[in-house]
Every structure is written in C-alpha cells, then in structure tokens.
Predict the structure of TetR/AcrR family transcriptional regulator.
Amino acid sequence: MEDALPKLPRKTGRPLSFDRDAALEQAMLLFWRHGYESTSLSDLTAAMGVTPPSIYAAFGDKRRLFLAAVHRYLSGPVTAETIIEGAGTAREAARQLLEGSAIAFTGTQTPPGCLLASGAISCSAEAADVQAELAALRGGIEARLAKRIARGKTEGELPGGTDAEALAGFVMAMIQGLSTLARDGASREKLLRVAANAMLAWPSGPSA
Amino acid sequence: MEDALPKLPRKTGRPLSFDRDAALEQAMLLFWRHGYESTSLSDLTAAMGVTPPSIYAAFGDKRRLFLAAVHRYLSGPVTAETIIEGAGTAREAARQLLEGSAIAFTGTQTPPGCLLASGAISCSAEAADVQAELAALRGGIEARLAKRIARGKTEGELPGGTDAEALAGFVMAMIQGLSTLARDGASREKLLRVAANAMLAWPSGPSA
DNA sequence: CATCTTCCATAGTGATCAATATGAAACAAT
DNA sequence: ATTGTTTCATATTGATCACTATGGAAGATG
C-alpha cells in the first residue's frame, strides 16, 4: 500500500495556507443555516477564514462552493442511499430515513433542519439552476425509495395495491416537513414522535 | 346603510394612480414564487407597475409589504381556521387541510407551493424577524389543529392515547412537504395521492 | 543563488440592493 | 385663481453584492 498522504501535495508553488476541507465545512454550516442566496461571500470569508481570491481559486464561484458544500453534506458514512439499500425491508428503510432525519435535523452542533431540504427552496430566477440541482438530488432519493418500495411489493412485504410513487413521495414530503418543524424550533423528541406518527401510514402487510 | 364606497376616498390631495389591492396581489404572486429575500424591489416595482416612492408610501417598507402580502394570501374565504373550526371531525379537518393544500399548491394561475411554507424558510440574519413571523403563523395553525384533535379525543372521535401534538405536527409537516413537492414539479394528481396516503396515519377510532 | 509556479493580501470592479430627496403634478377646498 | 395636501416621476443615496486585477510572498526546482 502506498503512503496515505492526507492531501495530495502540490508539486510546486506556494502551499495552501488553509485547510480546504475545514473551510468547506464552515461554508456548509453557513449555507445550512441561511441557505444559498442569503449567505453572502463576506459571510463566507469571515466564517472560513479565507479571503475571496482564495475561495475562488479553490472552489470556482459561489454556486460551485454551495454545490460542493451540499455534496459534503450528503457524503457521510450513512446516506439516504445506504439506508435504502441496506435496510431489510422498505418499511424499515422508511422508518430509518424518518427517524434519522428527526435526529439529524435537531443536532446541537449543527443548524436546525436540512441543507438539502431548505438550502434553496425559494430563490431568484438567477439561482433557478441551483434550485433545480437540489430538486434533482431530492428526486433521486425519492426514486430510489420508490424502487425499494416496488421491490417490497414483488417480495410480498407490501400489498399488491400499494402506490409506490405516492408512498415514496409521502416519505419525502415528511422529511421536508420535519426540516421546517425543526427550523421552527421543534425539539428532537417532538420530531421523533411526528416521525413515528408518520409510520402509521405505512401499509400493514401483503393483504389487499 | 351608508354608501358602500369601494375605497374610502381621500378628502384632499392627489388621488392614488394605482389599484392598491391589485398591486398587492402582484407583490404576493412575486413573493410566492421567489420568497421574501430573493424578491427585489425592482422586481416588485416592475410587476406592480408602481414606482419605489409609491410603494413605500402605500406599504411602508419591503418587510411590511411582504407581511401584507402574506396576510392577503391567508385571508381568502376558506382558511385553515375555517376548515379546522368548520369540519365535523378532527379527521375531516385534517383531510380537508391536506387535500386543500394539494390543490392550492398546484394551481395553474398561481406559483407552485405555499407562500406561508416557502416564503421565508432560510434567510439572512437580518430577516430573522420575518422568518419568525411566518413561523408564528404556522405555529398558530398547528396549535388550532392540536386543539381540534384534543377536542376529538374528549368527544370520543379519537382514541384516548392519541398524541394530539404529534398528530398536529404530522399534518403541518405534510403540508410543508407538499409545498416542496409542488415546487419540485409534482402534479396535482400525485400530491392528492400523497395526501391521501398521509391520511392512512390517522387513528382509526375511539379504541385503545 | 536565480527562476518558476502557485497562492496570498490589498484594494477595488461594476452592478444591484433597499430606501429617499427633490420638486412638479393632481386633486379638493377656499 | 390661490392655497393646501397628497402622490407622482426622476434621479440618486450609501451599502452591499459577487467577483477580480495587481503585485508581492512562499515554497520547490535548478
């Protein structure tokens, strides 16, 4: 095995004077709290401890910095994808998604709510492409969940009449709603009860 | 009965050259689509057909114009309040709220989604008060619904063990989520199926 | 050492932001 | 017609927006 270098070092030139990943994390936290358009470059430079030219050299522009922050946000060890593919049943996948959201949206070290859900809900026409990219990410998760639900139908976990599209949309809508409740100040305990309540809508068995 | 004048006329001075209510409606539609902070004054003046000084004379500032638009948005003949108080059961109130939301969020003559749900989700620190006012409006609706659910428990419509707070939060979260689904392009027909799916989580009867 | 490459810090770009100063215009009252 | 009041259109305010031009600093390479 080769040496596991922490960052692949530049061959030449002045070295980076800041930790790119730590700076990106600060940007993520700021975008998480205030959203894409309401986070200004001067907010970002202050939080990241990096001057504007360095930000632009390292990340491109504000849009690409935001997308990099969203990518980082979604690239933990546990993602929606790993939950959906790893759960034993579609029901268990949905339950873990909802419970995990309730917990993740009420962390004490992070802003309330969800960056993917709240980062670019309403924005100007100029930011329509960023809004569309987040919508596509949400749509991808929903499509994966719908597929998992459809598999549950074929495997007999779910009734044949189950509307996979509506059920996946329902779970996604709940996650969006949990984000808003969290941003409005709801406690983790309440969000968990709301999430548990949502699971009551899950089809009960392979009958009908 | 006095003469029902369409607008109480000024006693003196140059008359208003624009329809205040029509201008407010245009502002509402713009805020509805782009949210509070991402709607600029120049966007507003263009859509309302009114110059900046007239807007400030008629509505105060951008913040009060937005709140006036939200008030107008919420003050139709059918409101969350009339639905909650008018429905025969808490269940019927929830069903009407969800179905009404699915329809209202996918109107062809209005922007997708909900102004109250999406107008100020993530915003800068300067707009925190506006965000808080919308949160308070949402909280008021949720509290009313929770009260109606609690009444359903005492009247035997709902099981004694029903968690009124969680159930009301669940309905509110669903409405928030329906708004995002609509903004992401979901059809009215899909939203209605998602809303119907959500109603499956409703407690079934006065047992347990 | 000199040279090359890359990054940093300072300062500033034009554009747009919300909000206004100014004075003329439009009405009622006299 | 004159006065008083209110609204109008025009132009602009200082602040902030995302972004960058410039030149020196920091390292590797020779």
User: Anything to note?
Assistant: DSSP finds ten helices and no strands in chain A. Chain A touches chain B through 52 residues (CB under 8 Å). Confidence is low (pLDDT under 50) at residues 1-8 of chain A. The CA atoms of residues 98 and 164 of chain A lie 17 Å apart.
